[in-house]
Design goal:
Elements: E1 4-6, E2 11-12, H1 13-22, H2 28-35, H3 45-60, H4 66-69
Antiparallel strand pairs: 1-2
Helix pairs in contact: 1-2, 1-3
Bound molecules: FE2/S2 (inorganic) cluster.
Length: 73
């Protein structure tokens, strides 16, 4: 069963998690941009913020740093 986070846009937890873990979304604005969630009534904001609070620290360790992208050696 899908865990719907945003009922207005029918965005589920999987979609939110992918935006955080694959697109490195760290803010509610980025979640809106990548998923469309929280672009209706706004009631899902606290749920999305709680997901960001729990998931973003997990991603921070594996996010590629800009300074490491073009290492020559
Ligand atoms: S439930 Fe997400 S904007 Fe309404």
């Amino acid at each position: 069963m899908r865990d719907i986070v945003c009922n207005c846009q029918m965005v589920d937890r999987d979609t939110i998690d992918k935006a955080i873990h694959e697109k490195y979304a760290t803010t509610i604005e980025e979640i809106r941009r990548y998923t469309g969630a929280n672009t209706g009534c706004g009631k899902c904001m606290s749920y999305i913020n709680s997901i960001l609070d729990s998931e973003v620290p997990k991603v921070a360790a594996k996010k590629p740093e800009a300074s490491n992208r073009f290492k020559l050696w």
